Amino acid sequence: MLCLSSLSVALAALALVPSISDALKDGECEVCVSFLGRFYQSLQDNDVKFTSADIEKALVKTCKDTKGKENRFCYYIGGTNDAATKILNEISKPLSYHTPVDKICEKLKKKDSQICELKYDKQVDLSTVDLKKLKVKDLKKILEEWGESCKGCAEKSDFIRKINELMPKYAPNEAKARREL
Between the CA atoms of 73, 33, 66 and 47, what dihedral angle is there, to the nearest 10 degrees? Predict the structure, then answer.
């Protein structure tokens, strides 16, 4: 009888210990970890009070300026106006206690697995890439990242010309490296 009760106590103790499978793997939740890491650093740099309410206000303000995958992340956590759910408190409260961002992302993953499925698009090295070998979709994505569009572009060569025209403005180092090649 004593053996059974000690076994049940041991099993109960194991249930309380977080399993290794709950921990984030390398590259998992990359948008969450990266975004929240930069956000946490900006809070420290701007001397924001680490209260839940102040963190939430700063998070919503930060989310207004996001694009791409980070905007999608903000949508999932409720940081955008069009978000259906709000789980901002799942971020603001732990951040107010200075909880590491990877632990926050682990908890968010349990709430909504889509958050950890977000991955950044592969960045194109404009200094070395042959633009002629890229797909039109990728050329459009470069322009979109710069906040530009190519009205009247019908051919691939039109997009390439527009990118080469705007590169000194948006990617001056890459433009300089291309000229040196």
Answer: 130
112 contacts 129 by C-beta, under 8 angstroms: no
Structure tokens that stand for 67 in this block: 């694009």
Rounded Cα distance between 144 and 133, Å, is: 19
pLDDT score, position 143: 92
Report whether 29 contacts 114 (CB < 8 A): no
Q: What is the pLDDT of residues 2-49, one digit of tens each?
A: 444 554 444 444 444 444 456 777 778 999 999 999 999 999 999 989
Kindly state the tokens that stand for 127: 């200094």
Gap between the Cα atoms of 55 and 50, Å rounded: 6
Q: How many residues does the chain have?
A: 181
User: What is the Rg, in whole angstroms, of the alpha carbon atoms belonging to the chain?
Assistant: 23
Handedness of CA 67, 72, 73, 76 (dihedral sign): positive
Residue type present at position 54 = D
